[in-house]
Specification:
The complex is a heterodimer.
Chain A: H1 16-48, H2 54-59, E1 77-80, H3 90-95, H4 108-112, E2 122-127, E3 133-136, H5 137-142, E4 147-154, E5 159-169, H6 170-177, E6 185-190, E7 210-214, H7 215-219, E8 224-229, E9 232-233, E10 243-245, E11 258-264, H8 271-275, E12 299-302, E13 309-310, H9 318-321
Parallel strand pairs in A: 1-4, 2-11, 5-12
Antiparallel strand pairs in A: 2-3, 4-5, 5-8, 6-7, 6-11, 8-9, 8-10, 12-13
Chain B: H1 2-7, H2 13-21, H3 23-33, H4 41-70, H5 74-101, H6 106-115, H7 117-134, H8 138-144, H9 146-153, H10 155-170, H11 176-207
The chains are: A alpha+beta, B mainly alpha.
């Protein structure tokens, strides 16, 4: 017995009951930690839904570049068509939009549009015109004095922005190719290339994206082809290198990455109308009095603002464009 | 060992599930605080709270099939809590919609609920959850009597189905995510149905 040295006083021996409790406590603590973190991280994963990857990617969004940046455009004129309202930040304009060719979440275009190659790029103009032509996009851009146009942009999903586009009136280009008397409509087509536009591997919409305007809408001085925003070339996710902007219509009319413009005698098909004719009309004029079948169009949330604001008829451009639709029932032709 | 585990009440289980289940609301608050909910933070919070409410509705419905298929009893211990968590997130979702999104414009809200199918479905889901949450206590069960209580709580099958429809009608085009939840829900309901019919048959053979 003397070999084992000093025997501890019995008061210092941990009773077996306590010893077992301590093991139990440690075990329970570990199980608590594992379960709670497992439940928590599963829920966080589900919250990110099918879009887990985007979060980190959007974080590296480009900041407003320096003016000597090679994407800077020379702008001849500046026009504010948004009544002096505050511009939506460059970061929000370039990180929150719909461009289903790159995914259906509004952060997808910024995350995935790297695969688009906007140069070299050609735009063909054909159909009912005297002088059909194929333009190299930089030649085309150089041949017009570029204007900054600050427009309100109202998405059909009831959010809106104020965007300083850079571009030129579509009408100026159309005059150059001399539409014939048969030209009643203008049909637009986006690029079709599932390599560059991975969203085109899904059949969420019929590809390529197509849009259309009536000829008088296309010739209206507010209708522009945009090639930039915030004084710089369009980022890929906003429809590089050239896109349509029609400020009194819902955003989906503004077809992006255009490769073909064709003048037609018949009203051309349009992508969202093909997808859901009862929800998206050919005209798609912003109209607070005509609700989307599934949600109200009476109000909108301006990105960056807290309170909803009332939506304006023709997105506030009624003085300039309402006369295009005199005598038309805008409930029927929504 | 086996006997002891069976006797053990798993003291860590409920606190752990509860803690983990509050992570989403904590994450949303923290992101809102850091202004990291994206360009449309109200829509983002609204969508995520609604989604988590649906997850808990489906999870609560999964408890019984887990018991019948795998013989696990622990899911039954947290079923009531999962249901109450569903109600908690649905309530936050509704508060976000009425207070933050609509700014308590009751005319617009009533208009939305009456006119928009998807908002009507969401509103109905929430209304169904109120009596379930209110009668979730043991004393409520005693007061109602088991049979009536059980009949009332069959609403727990209807609520997630309405919630899935609400989610499906809300999305513009890509219905993958709501349909995934719909599929899980359909599987769980089928499992319940099979079990129900099996129980019926067992009863029948015993009577003969």
């Amino acid at each position: 017995m003397s070999d084992i040295g000093i025997i501890p006083p019995t008061s210092e021996i941990t009773p077996e009951r306590v010893y077992l409790q301590r093991r139990e406590f440690i075990k329970n603590s570990l199980l608590f930690a594992a379960t709670s973190s497992g439940v928590g991280s599963t829920l966080l994963w589900l919250m990110r839904g099918l879009r887990a990857k985007d979060h980190e990617k959007t974080a590296k969004a480009p900041a407003t570049g320096a003016p000597d940046d090679d994407s800077a455009l020379t702008v001849a004129q500046h026009y504010d068509y948004a009544s002096g309202e505050k511009n939506t930040s460059y970061n929000d304009v370039t990180n929150y939009n719909n461009f289903y060719e790159f995914g259906t979440d509004k952060s997808d275009p910024a995350a995935n549009a790297d695969s688009l190659r906007p140069r070299p790029w050609h735009v063909a103009i054909d159909g009912a015109v005297a002088r059909p032509q194929v333009f190299e996009v930089d030649q085309l851009i150089k041949s017009f004095p570029l204007e900054e146009r600050i427009y309100r942009m109202r998405c059909v999903e009831a959010w809106s922005m104020v965007i300083p586009w850079v571009g030129f009136p579509l009408g100026d280009l159309l005059k150059r190719v001399e539409p014939t008397s048969r030209a009643k409509y203008v049909a637009f087509k986006s690029l079709l290339d599932p390599q560059q536009m991975p969203g085109q591997r899904t059949d969420l919409l019929q590809w390529p994206y197509v849009e259309g305007l009536r000829i008088d809408e296309a010739m209206h001085p507010l209708t522009i082809l945009a090639v930039g925003l915030y004084g710089k070339r369009l980022p890929n996710q906003d429809g590089a290198p050239i896109r349509l902007v029609v400020p009194w219509k819902y955003g989906f009319k503004g077809i992006k990455s255009i490769v073909n413009i064709s003048l037609t005698a018949e009203q051309p098909p349009t992508s969202w109308n093909i997808a859901a004719a009862d929800e998206y009309g050919f005209y798609a004029n912003v109209n607070p009095a005509v609700d989307h079948p599934r949600w109200s169009q009476a109000t909108e949330r301006r990105i960056g603002e807290y309170h909803r604001r009332p939506t304006l008829p023709f997105n506030g451009y009624g003085d300039q464009v309402a006369s295009l639709y005199t005598g038309m029932d805008l409930r029927t032709f929504f | 060992m086996e006997a002891r585990r069976k006797k053990s009440p798993l003291p860590w289980l409920k606190p752990a599930v509860l803690t983990g289940s509050l992570v989403p609301v904590a994450a949303i608050l923290e992101r809102a605080w850091r202004d990291d909910l994206g360009p449309d933070p109200i829509a983002q919070a609204l969508n995520q709270l609604g989604l988590i409410a649906l997850v808990f509705l489906v999870a609560a419905l999964g408890c019984t099939p887990l018991k019948t298929i795998f013989g696990w009893t622990w899911p039954m211990r947290i079923r009531r809590m999962l249901g109450l968590l569903a109600f908690f997130y649905a309530l936050l979702h509704v508060i976000t919609y009425t207070v933050l999104d609509q700014g308590l414009d009751w005319n617009a809200i009533v208009d939305d609920v009456v006119k928009r199918k998807f908002i009507f479905l969401g509103f109905s889901t929430f209304v169904l959850l109120i009596p379930l949450a209110a009668t979730s206590t043991n004393s409520a069960l005693r007061r109602l009597g088991y049979v009536r209580w059980k009949q009332l709580h069959r609403l727990a099958y209807l609520a997630p189905a309405l919630a899935v429809l609400h989610f499906t009608l809300k999305v513009k085009r890509d219905e993958t995510e709501p349909l995934t939840y719909g599929l899980v829900l359909a599987a769980l309901l089928t499992a319940r149905l099979i079990e129900y019919m099996g129980a019926d048959r067992a009863l029948l053979t015993r009577e003969i």
